[in-house]
Amino acid sequence: MSDSPTDQNDQGQTPARPILPWNDPMQTTTMNGNTSGTNGAPPPEIQILKWNWGAFTLPGFWLIAHNRVLAGVVVLLTGLLELVIKNANPPLHWLIIIGRLVYVAILAAQGNMTAWQNRHFDSVDEFFQVQNAWLNWSIAWWAIMAFILMVSIVAVENQPRMPFPYLTHPNQPFGQ
To answer: Which of 60, 124, 162, 166 is most buried by a 10 A CB count?
Structure first.
């Protein structure tokens, strides 16, 4: 007989295997009561939070950073897909935009719970520091994007206007 916990004892029963906190799949707390990264219930100070701006403004990167890699890659790919099919299939383009906005809004509403359950934090204070850093980076990202957009608009509007190449004179009919 081997010492494997799945072997049966003399009465034909499987002996009980000791369950330790670090290998119990049903255990949702660590040794010091910190449930972050274990899919456990977050503490009350995190449960009362309603909106996560980092999850709303940078959803793909935020998901990847909080150990939701597949969901993050899907969000990033749908953003690229929006660009690719924008002119090819407008109804599908709008369907993707609306679906993505709904998903991102749900993610932002559940973002604090998702962050706590999927990424380990040493304390609640560290959790707040990380989420505030995501907020600051998202503000910086969108400020840079707004600046680039304004510069692009100004650059396009200040381009010299080219006359139509087929008109040689405003009063001359076309083709003569």
So the answer is: 60
pLDDT in tens, 122-162: 888 898 899 999 999 999 999 999 999 999 998 888 777 66
**In terms of Cα–Cα distance, which of 104, 65, 66 is closest to 82?**
104
Indicate if the alpha-carbon torsion angle 41, 67, 110, 52 is positive or negative.
positive
Q: How far apart are CA 30 and CA 20, in angstroms?
A: 11
Neighbours of 121 (CB within 10 A): 20
Which residues have C-beta within 8 Å of that of residue 17, sequence separation ≥ 6? 5
pLDDT by residue (tens digit) across 7-42? 555 666 655 554 444 344 444 444 456 777 777 778
**Overall average pLDDT of the 60-80 stretch:** 90
Cα distances (Å, whole numbers) of residue 109 to 47, 52, 62, 74, 100: 11, 7, 14, 19, 14
> Distance (Å, rounded) from C-alpha 100 to C-alpha 129?
27
Angstrom distance (rounded) from CA 143 to CA 100: 22
What distance in Å separates the CA atoms of residue 151 and residue 66, rounded to the nearest whole number?
A: 34
C-alpha atoms less than 13 angstroms from C-alpha of 165 in its C-beta half-sphere: 0
